[in-house]
Design goal:
The chain is an alpha/beta fold and 323 residues long. The chain folds into 2 domains: 163 residues, P-loop containing nucleotide triphosphate hydrolases (Rossmann fold, 3-Layer(aba) Sandwich), CATH 3.40.50; 112 residues, Zinc Finger, Delta Prime, domain 3 (Up-down Bundle), CATH 1.20.272. It is built from 15 helices and 5 strands. A 5-stranded parallel sheet has the order 2-3-4-1-5, with helices on both faces. Helix 5 links the parallel strand 3 and strand 4. Helix 8 packs across helix 9. The protein binds zinc ion. Zinc ion binds next to helix 3.
Length: 323
């Protein structure tokens, strides 16, 4: 199986393969950029190239050598992946296990690769312990860290890595790629997916555009006719939709940002314009903060129904004077 580089990541891939060609492989690489753009796959491709015994001209792993076969079967002894379980952090125990492996020599003659996904999930104790591994990774070892929240990583870790910051995504490449995947309404999907092409494709396959339109209308109705709508019922319905509640809050954040932009004279949206006229900027900023905090809470254990109800009630009463 050939490795695949998403077209919008090619400039970053070239930076990585440049290290290979120059035989100047960093001890640690930090790949950072927003969610849903393919950072993990880029990291996996780089790992594959570091391990492969017969690299192609473009620097891609061959897919057939002994190292490639072992890696594809997830049995390569010198390829170690550390990633948090869903909803959990990366704790000290997993880092200790990693350091114990790093203290041994690589088993094969080639490079050893350690890939840490969602590296921002290292808790403080784990991050502190991991520093030792970064300072002394051992011979022929490359550590690849992946994160969409680099600011959450301690500076002591970031400063020890070669940083690949994925900031520029070639929009034309993204449009072409989405068209190749038969995605219609690419612009609307990309807006809903906060610019992430992989999420836009996922949303297309799940028909989220129509769903988001429905959710948006209900969200607006809470402002238009707060007396006529049943918040409890709306929250219940939202939780029955085939979409993660956290995505619903992501959408709310997008709409709120659109609303906030109107205050700065950016963009136009007649439905939101009407709501803007009822609100003050400071209230809206505070509410946006509440939604962000709610989003964080959703990632932990919480009563989703109550949380949604609270946010929707707050939304419907925003700017309404009591007493
Ligand atoms: Zn190979």
């Amino acid at each position: 199986m050939a490795e695949y580089i998403y077209p919008w990541l090619i400039p970053y891939w070239q930076t990585l393969t440049h290290y290979l060609r120059q035989q100047r492989i960093p001890q640690a690489v930090l790949i950072a950029g927003r969610a849903g753009i393919g950072k993990r796959q880029l990291a996996e491709c780089f790992a594959a190239s570091l391990l492969c015994e017969r690299l192609s001209g473009e620097g891609l792993a061959c897919g057939h050598c002994h190292a490639c076969v072992l890696r594809q079967a997830s049995t390569h002894p010198d390829f170690i992946v550390l990633e948090p379980e869903a909803g959990k952090g990366l704790g000290i125990d997993s880092v200790r296990g990693l350091l114990a492996k790093m203290a041994l020599k690589p088993q094969f003659e080639g490079q050893r690769v350690i890939l840490i996904d969602a590296a921002d999930k290292l808790n403080p104790a784990a991050a502190n312990a991991f520093l030792k591994g970064l300072e002394e990774p051992g011979e022929r070892t490359t550590i690849i860290l992946v994160t969409d929240k680099p600011a959450r990583l301690p500076m002591t870790i970031r400063s020890r890595c070669q940083q690949i910051q994925i900031t520029q995504l070639d929009q034309a490449q993204i449009q072409t790629w989405l068209a190749q995947h038969q995605v219609m309404q690419a612009d609307a999907l990309l807006a809903l997916a906060n610019g992430s092409p992989l999420r836009a494709l996922d949303y297309h396959e799940k028909n989220y555009l129509a769903l988001a339109g429905q959710v948006f209308d209900e969200w607006l109705s809470l402002r238009r006719d707060p007396g006529q709508v049943n918040v409890v019922k709306i929250a219940e319905n939202w939780l029955k939709h085939p979409v993660e509640p956290v995505i619903l809050l992501d959408w709310m954040c997008l709409w709120l940002v659109r609303l906030l932009k109107l205050f700065y004279g950016e963009g136009f949206d007649s439905a939101l314009q009407e709501i803007k006229s009822q609100l003050e900027l400071a209230q809206l900023c505070r509410y946006y903060q509440s939604v962000l905090e709610g989003r964080q809470l959703l990632l932990t254990q919480c009563n989703q129904q109550l949380l949604l109800e609270k946010l929707l009630i707050e939304w419907s009463q925003l700017g309404v004077k009591h007493g």
